[in-house]
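Appendix C: a fully annotated inverse folding record. The material below is reproduced so that readers can follow the format used throughout the book. The structure is listed first as tokens, followed by the designed sequence.
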């Protein structure tokens, strides 16, 4: 099995992928099998990743938002069998994620 200390995580809407934040990097994991395998690593923060959230779009058009201690929110294309790519970068004070259980706001300051 995989044992990692992560700062945050999010599940892709179709349940087939998990994003985890550790340090300044984001790992994307194939969650289809019983033992998740890393399929991509995203780098776009100069300070630790503090929040991750997949959009509620369909499986092929979901986006991934990452918020870091550098006070940046990066919007990534979620890979559908390929590499993710950085689509937008915003300067923000907090990262907000809407889930089925409600909205979560995380300040992006250490």
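Designed amino acids, in order:
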């Amino acid at each position: 099995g995989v044992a990692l200390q992560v700062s945050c995580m999010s599940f892709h809407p179709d349940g087939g992928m998990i994003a985890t934040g550790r340090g300044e990097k984001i790992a994307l994991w194939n969650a289809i099998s019983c033992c998740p395998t890393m399929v991509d690593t995203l780098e776009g923060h100069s300070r630790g990743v503090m929040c991750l959230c997949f959009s509620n779009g369909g499986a092929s058009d979901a986006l991934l938002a990452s918020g870091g201690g550098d006070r940046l929110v990066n919007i990534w294309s979620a890979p559908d069998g390929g590499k993710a790519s950085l689509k937008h970068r915003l300067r923000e004070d907090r990262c907000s994620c809407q889930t089925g259980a409600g909205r979560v706001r995380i300040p992006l300051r250490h």
